[in-house]
Specification:
The structure holds two protein chains of two kinds. By secondary structure, chain A is an alpha/beta fold. In chain A, about 35% of the residues lie in helices and about 15% in strands. Chain A has five domains: about 90 residues, Single Sheet (N-terminal domain of TfIIb), CATH 2.20.25.90; about 250 residues, Rossmann fold; about 200 residues, Dimethylsulfoxide Reductase, domain 2 (3-Layer(aba) Sandwich); about 60 residues, no CATH class; about 120 residues, Barwin-like endoglucanases (Beta Barrel). Chain B is of the alpha+beta class. In chain B, strands 2-3-1-4 form a four-stranded antiparallel beta sheet. Chain B is elongated, with a radius of gyration of 18 Å. The N and C termini of chain B lie far apart (about 45 Å). The chains are: A alpha/beta, B alpha+beta. Chains A and B meet through helix 1, strand 3, helix 3, helix 8 and helix 27 of A and strand 1, strand 2, strand 3, helix 2 and strand 4 of B. Strand 3 of chain A pairs antiparallel with strand 4 of chain B, so a sheet runs across the interface.
Chain lengths: ~800, ~100
C-alpha cells in the first residue's frame, strides 16, 4: 500500500468519525473516500436486535475489507459496537460450510454430496415421514436471524405443503413473553414508539437488561442523553446483578431473583396511594382485568395491591430494596415529563414472564406514560429479525403471517385464500412450542426436523436432555447454517447457506423498522440462499407426495433468479397479500422503497409514498399513525386498534407475586442466572471465529459475590463447579460486586462441553408464553482447583 | 495494517490530561475535540490484535467515558492472511479436544 493511499484511508476514518459529531476537518472527503475501497454497500448489522445500519466496503476483487456505520440511520447514527464492526471478517473464514454434507447414520462420518442429491434426500425424508406418521411428525425450527423472506417461506411450506403448524424458532427462547405482554396489555404486539423517544425522555427505567453489553449502541444513546442532561434525566436500574449498565444509574434497585413482580406491584401501589396516576388517561383508555374474561373495577385492583405496600414488598424483595427506595422510584417514574422503560431477558425469561411484562405496562398505563414524546414501554430484542421475521412473518407454532392466530378459522381462511390453496388446508390446532417440540424429538414423535440458522444443541435449557433425542437414529435432522455447530454434529444432512450480504432480504428490528440488506458479495463454495434451498426442497416434495397443493406452495417463486428476484417475489407476496390492513401493514415497504431508505421503514406503512417518509414513529396516535385515523372509532387522539383487544382498551392487570419454578433449598442453596457478555453472540459459532473478539472473552466465567466466595473459599480465577439437579459445568471464577449475595451469574456463550452452562439451566417455562426460565434456577457451587490455563473452543 | 476511526467521549474536566496520555501512543491521531467532549480519533496499528488491545487500554484511562468505533479498514491485513504472509497467532481449541477442566 502506498503512503498516500494509507493517508487517504486515515483521512476517511477521521472524516467518518467527525461527521457523526458535526465536526469539520480540513480534508477533502471526495479524494479520501474514492480511494479506500472499490464500493460501499448499505445493510443491517446481524448481531443484535438494535438494527444498526452499516456500510460494507468491498475491494476490487470483491472481498469485504472494511466496515463503517451508516450516518443517516436513525437507529445508530453511524455508531457501531466492535461486534458489529468486525462481523464481516467471518465471511471468508476457512471453516465456512461450502458443500452439502450427508450421512445416513449419525455415527457415520459426513461425506460431501451434490445439491441435487441433498435436496432429494431432504424431500424424500420429510415426505416419507408425513405419509407414514402424519403431518405432525415433521417440524421446522428456525431463528430470529433468518431473513423475513426465509422465515415466511419455511412456515408457508410447513403449513401449506406438509400441513403441520410445527413451526418454531429460537425467539421462543427470548421474547415470547414480551409478545404475550404486549398482546394482553395493549392488544397489539411490539412497542408503541421507538428509539426516538430516548432523547426526549426525562426518566429511564432499565429493568432486567444489561443494555451496556447486550445492546451497546442503544446504551450509548441512553448514556449520551443522561450526560447531556445530568440533572434533568433520571435513570433507575433494577436488577439482581450490578452490571456495566448500572454505572449510569441514579438508583440501582438490587432485589432477590424472582421478586420483581412484588416490586413492580409496590411501585403501582405508591403511584395510586400518592395520587400520581393519570385519572383522565385511565378513564379514556384503560380497563382493569383479573383474567382474560374477567373485568374488574379500579377499587378491586387497588385492593389487590394491599399485599404490596412498599414495606411488604421490600421484605419480599430483600437485597438493598427499602420502602423508601420503591416510593422514590415510583415518584421518578410517574412525575417525569416522559418515562421510558427498557427490559430484556431478565423479565422475559421467567416462569411468569408475561405477568412481569404486564406489570411494567401497568405502570405506564396508570401514569399515562404512553403515546407521548419520551414515554414508552419498550421491550428490547436480542436478535436482528425476531420481530420482523418471526413475530410478524408467522414463525411460531401459534401464529400466522400478519399477526394472525392459527386458532382462528377466519384468519386461517384469509391466509389460505392469499396462498391460493383450499380452505381447511392449514391445520386448525397450533403446533408444538419449542420445549414441546424437542420433547417430541426425544420421544421420536417428530421424525424429521429442519433446523435453520440456530443451534438448539447448545441453546436449549437442560440441553443434555434434548441432545439425547437429537442423537436418535430414528429422528432425521437437516441443519442449514454457515459454520459447523453443536447441532450440525447431531445432524444427518448439513446444508451450507449464504451469509449476510451474500443474499438479499429484510430484517425487522425492535422498533417496528424493516430494513433491506442487498447482496454485495459472492458466497464461498456452493453455499446458497435459504429461500432457494426451501423452494427447491418443496418442489421435490411435490413429486414424492403427489399433491398439487405442495407444488402450488412454491410455484410463484420457482425458477426465479435466486439472489434478488426470488426473495423479492416472496417479500411481495408476504407484504402485499398478508399484511394488507393488518396492524403491521408493510405494503408501502417494497424493495424499491427499502433500497432508497438509509434506515428502512417503520410499520404501519400502507403506501409507498408514506413509507418514503420513514413510516410510523408512534403507533396509535392520530397525526403520527395513519391507521389511528383510518381505524378511528371516536374523537379521542389515541386509538388502540390492535387485533387482540376487541374493546380497544389498554388492560391493567391484577397479577400476584410469583417466584421462580425452582427456588434454592438446603441441597441447592444458590440462585443461578445466565446472560450475555459484550463482544460475543449466542453460541459463538460466529464471534468465536473472530480472533479479536474471542481474545477479549475467550471462555465463560462465573461471577460470584465476594461474600459467597469467602464462604466457599473461592479466590479470583479459581476453577468452580456449578451443579444443579440437571448437570454440572466447571469454569473460572470472577469474584465481584456483581450478583446479589446468594446468586451466581454465568456467561452462556461457551461451546466447550465443560463450560456449557445450559446443561445446568432448568427447562421450566411460562405457561402463557412457553418461554423457558433461563434466568433463575437453583444450584450449588464448589471450588475444584486453583486457576488453570484454558483454551478457547469452537467446534 | 488496520485503520480505525473512533469517537471517544471524554470527561471535559480532565480532557487535557487524557489527550496528553493519548499523545504518548504513536498509533493515535487526535483530530479534534468538540464542546461536548467528543474527540475524533484515528488509530493505525500493525495488526487487528494490536488495535483491539490498544482500544481496551484507552478505555481504562480515567476520563475516557466511551469509545465508539465508526470506521474500520483492514484490507491489506486480510490480503496478507489470505496469501499466508500473516498467520494469526490466535488458535482455537478444535475438534477432538478432550475435556480439560474436570478430572
Amino acid at each position: 500500500m502506498s503512503l498516500s493511499r494509507r493517508d487517504f484511508i486515515k483521512n476517511t476514518a477521521a472524516l467518518t468519525a467527525a461527521s457523526y459529531i458535526g465536526m469539520s476537518l480540513p480534508f477533502v472527503a471526495g479524494e479520501a473516500s474514492a480511494t479506500d475501497v472499490a464500493s460501499w454497500h448499505r445493510g443491517t448489522c446481524r448481531l443484535c436486535g438494535t438494527g444498526c445500519r452499516v456500510q460494507l466496503g468491498i475491494n476490487s476483487k470483491g472481498t469485504p475489507v472494511a466496515m463503517r456505520g451508516e450516518p443517516k440511520s436513525r437507529t445508530n447514527f453511524g455508531y457501531l459496537c466492535m461486534k458489529g464492526m468486525m462481523f464481516y471478517k467471518i465471511m471468508n473464514h476457512p471453516d465456512r460450510l461450502k458443500m452439502p454434507l450427508y450421512r445416513e447414520k449419525k455415527t457415520d462420518k459426513f461425506r460431501e454430496i451434490s445439491w441435487d442429491k441433498a435436496l432429494d434426500i431432504a424431500a424424500q425424508k420429510f415426505a416419507e415421514s408425513k405419509q407414514k406418521y402424519g403431518p405432525n411428525s415433521t417440524a421446522y425450527y428456525g431463528s430470529g436471524q433468518c431473513l423475513t423472506e426465509e422465515t415466511y417461506l419455511f412456515q408457508k411450506i410447513m403449513r401449506a405443503a406438509l400441513q403441520t403448524n410445527n413451526v418454531e424458532g429460537n425467539p421462543r427462547l427470548c421474547m415470547a413473553s414480551a409478545v404475550g405482554g404486549y398482546l394482553t396489555s395493549f392488544g397489539a404486539d411490539e412497542p408503541i414508539g421507538g428509539y426516538a423517544n430516548i432523547e426526549k425522555s426525562s426518566c429511564m427505567f432499565l429493568i432486567g437488561s444489561n443494555m451496556a453489553e447486550a445492546h451497546p449502541v442503544i446504551f450509548r444513546r441512553v448514556m449520551r442523553h443522561k450526560m447531556n442532561n445530568k440533572d434533568k434525566v433520571k435513570i433507575i436500574n433494577a436488577d439482581p446483578r450490578i452490571s456495566a449498565t448500572s454505572r449510569i444509574a441514579d438508583m440501582h434497585m438490587q432485589f432477590k431473583p424472582g421478586t420483581d413482580l412484588a416490586m413492580l406491584n409496590a411501585m403501582a401501589y405508591t403511584i395510586i396511594d400518592e395520587k400520581l396516576h393519570d385519572e383522565q388517561f385511565i378513564q379514556d383508555y384503560a380497563v382493569f382485568r383479573q383474567g382474560k374474561k374477567v373485568q374488574v373495577d379500579m377499587d378491586t385492583y387497588w385492593q389487590s395491591l394491599q399485599d404490596y405496600t412498599p414495606e411488604k414488598a421490600a421484605a419480599i424483595c430483600g437485597g438493598n430494596i427499602t420502602a423508601q427506595m420503591i416510593r422514590e422510584a415510583a415518584r421518578m417514574f410517574a412525575k417525569s415529563d416522559g418515562t421510558m422503560t427498557f427490559w430484556c431477558m431478565g423479565i422475559n425469561q421467567r416462569k411468569r414472564g408475561v405477568w412481569a411484562n404486564n406489570l411494567i405496562h401497568n405502570l405506564h398505563i396508570l401514569t399515562g406514560q404512553l403515546c407521548k414524546e419520551g414515554a414508552d414501554s419498550f421491550s428490547l430484542t436480542g436478535q436482528p429479525n425476531a420481530c420482523g421475521g418471526v413475530r410478524e412473518g408467522g414463525g411460531l407454532c401459534h401464529i400466522l403471517p400478519g399477526h394472525r392466530l392459527v386458532a382462528k378459522e377466519k384468519l386461517r381462511n384469509q391466509v389460505e385464500d392469499a396462498w391460493g390453496i383450499p380452505r381447511g388446508r392449514i391445520a386448525p390446532k397450533p403446533g408444538a412450542h419449542t420445549i414441546k417440540m424437542f420433547q417430541q424429538v426425544n420421544s421420536a414423535d417428530i421424525k424429521a426436523i429442519w433446523i435453520n440458522c440456530t443451534s438448539p444443541a447448545q441453546s436449549l435449557p437442560n440441553v443434555d436432555l434434548y441432545r439425547k433425542g437429537m442423537a436418535r437414529e430414528d429422528v432425521f435432522i437437516v441443519t442449514s447454517d454457515i459454520f459447523p455447530t453443536k447441532t450440525t454434529e447431531l445432524s444427518n444432512l448439513v446444508l451450507p447457506t449464504a451469509f449476510h450480504f451474500e443474499k438479499t432480504g429484510v430484517y425487522g428490528c425492535t422498533e417496528r423498522r424493516s430494513q433491506i440488506t442487498p447482496r454485495a458479495v459472492v458466497s464461498p463454495g456452493e453455499a446458497r440462499p435459504e429461500t432457494w434451498i426451501a423452494t427447491e426442497w418443496c418442489a421435490r416434495m411435490a413429486k414424492y407426495l403427489n399433491d398439487p397443493v405442495v407444488l402450488q406452495t412454491v410455484k410463484p417463486f420457482l425458477g426465479k433468479e435466486m439472489y434478488v428476484e426470488q426473495p423479492e417475489a416472496i417479500w411481495d407476496e408476504y407484504t402485499q397479500k398478508l399484511t394488507k390492513h393488518r396492524d403491521n401493514d408493510l405494503r408501502g415497504a417494497t424493495y424499491k422503497v427499502l433500497k432508497q431508505m438509509a434506515d428502512g421503514v417503520q410499520w404501519p406503512a400502507a403506501t409507498e409514498s408514506y413509507a418514503l417518509t420513514g413510516g410510523t414513529v408512534m403507533k396509535f396516535v392520530k397525526g403520527s399513525d395513519p391507521m389511528a385515523t383510518s381505524e378511528s372509532k371516536d374523537d379521542k387522539p389515541f386509538q388502540f386498534y390492535g387485533p387482540a383487544h376487541a374493546d380497544r382498551k389498554l388492560w391493567v392487570w391484577v397479577r400476584p407475586q410469583a417466584g421462580a419454578d425452582e427456588e434454592p433449598d438446603a441441597e441447592w442453596p444458590m440462585y443461578l442466572s445466565t446472560g450475555r457478555i459484550i463482544d460475543h453472540w449466542h453460541t459463538t459459532s460466529m464471534t468465536g471465529r473472530i480472533p479479536e473478539l474471542m481474545r477479549a472473552n475467550p471462555y465463560s466465567f462465573v461471577e460470584i459475590n465476594p461474600k459467597d466466595a469467602l464462604k466457599h473459599g473461592i479466590k479470583p480465577n479459581d476453577m468452580v463447579e456449578i451443579s444443579s439437579r440437571r448437570g454440572k459445568v466447571t469454569m473460572p471464577a470472577k469474584v465481584m460486586e456483581g450478583p446479589i449475595e446468594g446468586m451466581v451469574f454465568a456467561y452462556w456463550h461457551d461451546m466447550h462441553e465443560d463450560r456449557m452452562i445450559n446443561k445446568v439451566v432448568k427447562d421450566s417455562f411460562d405457561p402463557g408464553s412457553k418461554e423457558p426460565e433461563f434466568k433463575i434456577c437453583a444450584c450449588r457451587i464448589k471450588r475444584v482447583s486453583g486457576p488453570k490455563a484454558l483454551k478457547p473452543f469452537v467446534v | 495494517m488496520p485503520i480505525g476511526g473512533f469517537v471517544v467521549v471524554l470527561d471535559l474536566s480532565v480532557s487535557d490530561e487524557v489527550l496528553k496520555q493519548f499523545s504518548q501512543f504513536p498509533q493515535i491521531d487526535v483530530h479534534g475535540v468538540n464542546e461536548e467532549g467528543s474527540a475524533v480519533v484515528v488509530i493505525d496499528t500493525e495488526t487487528s490484535d494490536e488495535m483491539e488491545q490498544l482500544t481496551r487500554q484507552l478505555q481504562k484511562i480515567d476520563g475516557v467515558l466511551s469509545l465508539g468505533v465508526t470506521y474500520f479498514h483492514a484490507e491489506d491485513e486480510i490480503e496478507k492472511i489470505e496469501s499466508g504472509e500473516i498467520k494469526p497467532s490466535f488458535s482455537f481449541g478444535r475438534k477432538g479436544e478432550k475435556s480439560e477442566n474436570c478430572s
